[in-house]
Amino acid sequence: MDEKPAFWRVIERAVAEGGARAEFDVVLEHMAGVDAARAKVAGKFERIRRGLGEPWIVPATAADLRDALGRGLEVRRGPRFAGTDAMLADWLEVEGFEPAGPDAAHEGLGELDDIFNEVADEGRVGLDLLESLSRLMELSQALLDESLAGLDDASREQLFEGTAAFHEAWYRNHFPEGELTPEQSTAVENEKALLARTSANRPLLLGVAGVLLRLAEPAMLDSLRARLAKVRGPVEGEEPDTLAVVGEGPGRVVLTGKKGTEHRADAALAIDLGGDDTWIGAAVASSEGALARVVLDLAGRDTYLDAGGGGGYGGPAFAVGGAALLVDRRGDDRYLGKRLANGASVLGFAALLDLAGDDRYEAEDFSEGEATGGIALLVDLEGDDAYQAWAFAQGSGIGSGFAALVDGSGDDTYLADLHWPDAYGDSGPDVYHGASQGYSTGIRSTVAGGFAALVDLGDGRDRYQAGSFSLGGGYYFGFGLKYDGGGDDETFGSRYGGGFGVHQAIGVLWDAGGDDAYTFRSVAHTGMAWDEGVGYLLEDGGDDTFQVGELGCGGAAQTGIAILIDRGGRDMHHSGKSSEGGTGSSEYHDKPALGVLLDFGGKKDTYSAEGRADGTLRVTPGVEVFLDSRAKTIERLAAGKKLE
Question: For the chain, how many structural domains are there in total?
Answer without folding.
Answer: 1
